[in-house]
Amino acid sequence: MRHLLSTADLTRDDALLILDTAAELARISDRPMKKLPTLRGRTVVNLFFEDSTRTRISFEAAAKRLSADVINFSAKGSSVSKGESLKDTALTLQAMGADAVVIRHGASGAPHRLANAGWIESTVINAGDGTHEHPTQALLDAFTLRRHLRDGEGDLTGVRVTIVGDVLHSRVARSNVLLLHTLGADVTLCAPPTLLPVGVDTWPCTVSYDLDAAIADADAVMMLRVQLERMNAAYFPSAAEYSRRYGLDAQRMATLAPHTIVMHPGPMNRGMEIAADVADSERSVIVEQVSNGVSVRMAVMYLLLGGAESGIGGIA
Amino acid sequence: MSDASEMRAVLEAADVARALSRIAHEIDERTKGADDIVLLGVPTRGVALARRIGARLAEIQGHPIPVGSLDITMYRDDLRLKKARALLHTEIPTGGIDGRLVVLVDDVLFSGRTVRAALDALGDIGRPRMVQLAVLVDRGHRELPIRADYVGKNLPTSLRETVRVQLAEHDAEDAVLVGAVTA
Lengths: 316, 183
Description:
A: 316 residues, Rossmann fold, 5-stranded parallel sheet, 4-stranded parallel sheet, 9 strands, B: 183 residues, alpha/beta, 3-stranded antiparallel sheet, 3 helices
């Protein structure tokens, strides 16, 4: 496998290889010398058509720690705002000799198009496409879950994860459901019916509309951001009502089992889906998710670009 | 790689034990009983060897010897010639390597490229006051100006042969085997 487009493409063994590699790479972050020579002379382009803070910085840090050259490209201030097509942008990157393109795009399927249209020869890594997938986020979530609930080893068999909130607009939720299921976890989605996508009943997970019941025996609760920028209709009566029924506040957090961790992919709407004192509590692993993201992205880039052929999947 | 049954043993378990014991004594002698020795094994079998030499050296010197492992995968010069490989474990003992005498331990010294990679990896972790190399078998055919300080067995081989070190930690029993390259 030359690209990372969807967590559906990862077998259990592929996912474990990425997590184990990330675990070794995480230890390098504790050293005074945080750089490896592995991708010296390779060029990684961060192609971001949507705003992003942590994902772009995380990919940039990961590529730089592996000694790759990084070119950041954001749609704002580029020829894209003059109307350049994805194809022409891709041909430009190909001409510049990019070895990997990390793409975030508002349109679901854009990374797939970039990888398979024959415009470029680079490896393509999906950094979030529309409401479709965000595979490296799911991998860093799995890494964080494994570290806290399985001592950092093996898969996630029997781990109960409840994902709460705006599933409809969330690429994080889809990638997580697929990956966590592959790794053996039991996933429950909890959201108002208006914020669940059509066809969610075919996903490998259970669905609940009752937050208190859904988090009662969870090992981890993952709160999703309410994506107001993608909402052009009324999905719930008011922010206050959403927060009351589907928000995680201190009172609800107190009902969780003692070992249960609270996650959020960020950026958070404090006071909306998650209360500030929950986000800053000892259960919260939200800041750790960010640092784990660098290790996981290093692992993905090393395995896809480090050798003559990809270390992920049976066929290159 | 050849089947173990078609290979002939050049060192048996007792020979391996004697060789490692001698290496431990030589380290003590050559370093004049230095008390800042750190043994770092190159995975996989170098780590098991480092542990054994460390245990023997601890008996000789009367204090525990820090033993760790150093994965060199990311520093290999043939990384881009092969499929991307899984990383092995790096474990630097508490106390680190700065200003200490590091002895790298590997099972077979061949081209010397693994050792070169290990020296590069070491440079990113710290600055030892000295680095030495201990190997169970030196089979010759160096491609770089590298030599071992401590050698269990010098084993002249042809490039058509394979050398395999078996250790009880990973295999049925301790042995060093030599066999013809099959295809």
